[in-house]
């Protein structure tokens, strides 16, 4: 896992600030920087209130200025509204992932849309997650910490210390470990009970943690991860649809095609042959999960 990016000098390394534990950290350690992009001032005020105690929070009120601020500030993570006038969230994400200076920054979409197709459209562009509106403070902090940790922008000790109110440090580690385990074993996943056992918990506990921290069931997360990985493989490789189906854990190409079409609106072949893969390509180097 790479170290956090430096801020303001060769000896300064990015990291988190503990929320619950009163431990002394070196003064040179900078808090992770977040960029919030939303045209709703009320939503921005709410997010700032949720996050400012833990992070260096910057913001922009429209997509274009948000893109420019991202290029200038190089934040550790971006929370990006989907529905904005002018350059909407999908346009901004597409441009971020096309720019070598910003393509590695994790993007979490902010949206009131909860349809699976809407979420997967953003994930295919390179976003790592969604946070639904209205905001739940614990969920926002949890998702931010999970993806900072997965992207290597927090050290292991920082991730353990920097936890949201009322949450146990171990719960964050377990969800992160389960997400990584799922991504690494899509071709032949064990049962949910066995996944839970592999990260030191039990099935009921893991199901509760996924709902609490990610807003999904374990099976729902697996379904999205399989389609997301399928999108990536269609873009990055010359693997056949049958080979990709096997790689992401479907028993037959037909099952993969059906699931893919249900979630993306087109078949894998049509996806590969359309202009959509060109939009998703930059995510190959910075896929946030797994």
Automatic annotation (TrEMBL):
Q: Which SMART domains does this chain map to?
A: HTH_ARAC (SM00342), REC (SM00448)
Modified positions (4-aspartylphosphate) are 81
Annotated region (Disordered), positions in chain: 271-290
Does this entry carry the keyword DNA-binding?
yes
The chain positions of domain HTH araC/xylS-type read: 176-274
Q: What InterPro entries does the annotation carry?
A: CheY-like_superfamily (IPR011006), Homeodomain-like_sf (IPR009057), HTH_AraC (IPR018060), HTH_AraC-typ_CS (IPR018062), Sig_transdc_resp-reg_receiver (IPR001789), Tscrpt_reg_AraC-type_HTH (IPR020449), WalR-like (IPR039420)
Give the keywords, sorted: DNA-binding, Phosphoprotein, Transcription, Transcription regulation, Two-component regulatory system
Specify the Response regulatory domain's residue ranges. Answer: 33-148
Q: Which protein, by its recorded name, is this?
A: Response regulator
Q: Which organism is it from?
A: Pelomonas dachongensis
């Amino acid at each position: 896992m790479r170290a956090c990016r430096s801020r303001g000098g060769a000896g300064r390394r990015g990291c988190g600030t503990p929320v619950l534990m009163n431990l002394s950290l070196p003064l040179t350690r900078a808090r992770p920087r977040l960029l919030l992009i939303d045209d709703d001032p009320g939503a921005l005020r709410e997010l700032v209130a949720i996050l400012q105690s833990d992070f260096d929070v910057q913001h922009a009120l429209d997509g274009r200025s948000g893109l420019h601020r991202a290029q200038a500030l190089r934040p550790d993570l971006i929370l990006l509204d989907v529905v904005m006038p002018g350059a909407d969230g999908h346009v901004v994400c597409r441009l971020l992932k096309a720019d070598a200076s910003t393509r590695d920054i994790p993007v979490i979409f902010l949206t009131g849309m909860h349809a699976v197709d809407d979420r997967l459209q953003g994930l295919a562009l390179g976003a790592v997650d969604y946070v639904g509106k209205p905001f739940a403070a614990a969920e926002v902090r949890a998702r931010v910490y999970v993806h900072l940790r997965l992207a290597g922008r927090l050290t292991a000790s920082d991730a353990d210390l920097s936890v949201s109110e009322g949450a146990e440090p171990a719960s964050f580690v377990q969800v992160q470990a389960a997400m990584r385990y799922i991504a690494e074993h899509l071709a032949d996943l064990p049962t949910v009970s066995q996944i839970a056992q592999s990260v030191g918990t039990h099935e009921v506990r893991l199901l509760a943690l996924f709902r609490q921290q990610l807003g999904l069931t374990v099976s729902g997360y697996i379904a999205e991860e399989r389609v997301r990985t399928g999108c990536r493989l269609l873009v990055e490789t010359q693997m056949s649809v049958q080979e990709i189906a096997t790689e992401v854990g479907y028993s037959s190409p037909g099952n993969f095609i059906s699931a893919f079409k249900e979630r993306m609106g087109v078949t894998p072949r049509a996806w590969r042959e359309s202009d959509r893969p060109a939009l998703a390509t930059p995510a190959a180097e910075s896929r946030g999960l797994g």
